[in-house]
Specification:
- The chain has helices spanning about 5-10, 55-60; strands spanning about 15, 20-25, 30-35, 40, 45, 70, 75-80.
- The protein is built from 2 helices and 7 strands.
- The strands form 3 sheets. A 3-stranded mixed beta sheet has the order 2-3-6, with helices on one face. A two-stranded antiparallel sheet has the order 1-7.
- With about 80 residues, the protein is α+β, with helices and mostly antiparallel strands.
């Protein structure tokens, strides 16, 4: 989805890219933040992710268990109008 008018971006308070937002079928927040922990900070990356936040959140949600990590700060470039 390309949100050129930033309607969803603003509604969901997305601030950086990449940042993921996982909603349930009632549009309630399940998880928001980093996809994984490969990027430590801007310009600093691990060779391989050791934690997969989005995959874990999806798996836990689909198994009807409590999502252990609901938010994890995303590292990336600010979303802007350019």
């Amino acid at each position: 989805l390309i949100d050129t008018k930033k309607l969803l971006t603003n509604y969901l308070h997305a601030s950086v890219t990449p940042e993921v937002i996982l909603l349930n079928n009632r549009y309630e927040l399940v998880y928001k933040g980093a996809i994984d922990n490969r990027v430590k900070q801007l310009g600093v990356q691990r060779w391989k992710a050791t934690e997969n936040y989005l995959t874990d959140a999806i798996t836990q949600y689909l198994q009807h268990t409590s999502v252990a990590v609901k938010r994890k700060p995303a590292v990336g470039c600010l979303i802007n109008d350019f």
